[in-house]
Structures are given as structure tokens and as C-alpha cells.
């Protein structure tokens, strides 16, 4: 499935609406680290994100150590950032 990449302007607008997220150095993904009180809360967050990801058919790349979750969003089918990344990031922020 071919999905359109965001334009430079759309990327800037997206990041302006997503404080805490930053653009990866190659410009093809956005990243954010989440920190929770303990592992159980971090894993509960990941479980909630997993349900969102399935609903949106759009999945994060992530790494968890104890209470920290490092998350990267990119659209593999687009080879970079797409509206799907913005939509998922906004839904994730709404969980906090
Ligand atoms: C067939 C394809 O794997 C699906 O359309 C979805 C699954 N989840 C996905 N997640 C992400 N991050 N990028 C994708 O391109 C993607 N594609």
C-alpha cells in the first residue's frame, strides 16, 4: 500500500502539535521517551498503546527498560513520516 509522506511544512505543523516529540536526525521518524513511576505503569501504557496500534493498523517501534519507554513512529509503507504517525502520536498523548 502506498502512503504519502508528509511535506516539510506538515512535519513542522505535526511537531508543533506534539510537544515532547522530536524529529529523528534522518527526518523519517518522530521519537519520544516516556517515563513512569514503575514498570507496571510503563507496561500498562504499552498495553494501551498496543490496542491503539491495532485499531489504527499502525505500530510503533519501541524499547522498554523498567519504567522507561522509548518510542519511534514512522510509516514503513511510506518510507518516512505520514499522517498515520501524527494520528497515532496524538492518540498516545491522549492516554497520558
Ligand atoms: C500491511 C502493513 O503491514 C500494514 O498496513 C501496516 C501495519 N503497521 C504499520 N506500522 C507502521 N509503523 N508502518 C506501516 O507501514 C504499517 N503497515
UniProtKB/TrEMBL annotation:
It comes from the Bacteria. Its EC number is 4.2.1.96. Gene3D superfamilies: Transcriptional coactivator/pterin dehydratase. GO terms for biological process: tetrahydrobiopterin biosynthetic process. It catalyses: (4aS,6R)-4a-hydroxy-L-erythro-5,6,7,8-tetrahydrobiopterin = (6R)-L-erythro-6,7-dihydrobiopterin + H2O. Keywords: Lyase. The keyword Iron does not apply. Signal peptide: none annotated. GO terms for molecular function: 4-alpha-hydroxytetrahydrobiopterin dehydratase activity. Belongs to the pterin-4-alpha-carbinolamine dehydratase family. This is Putative pterin-4-alpha-carbinolamine dehydratase. The lineage of its organism: Bacteria, Pseudomonadati, Pseudomonadota, Alphaproteobacteria, Sphingomonadales.
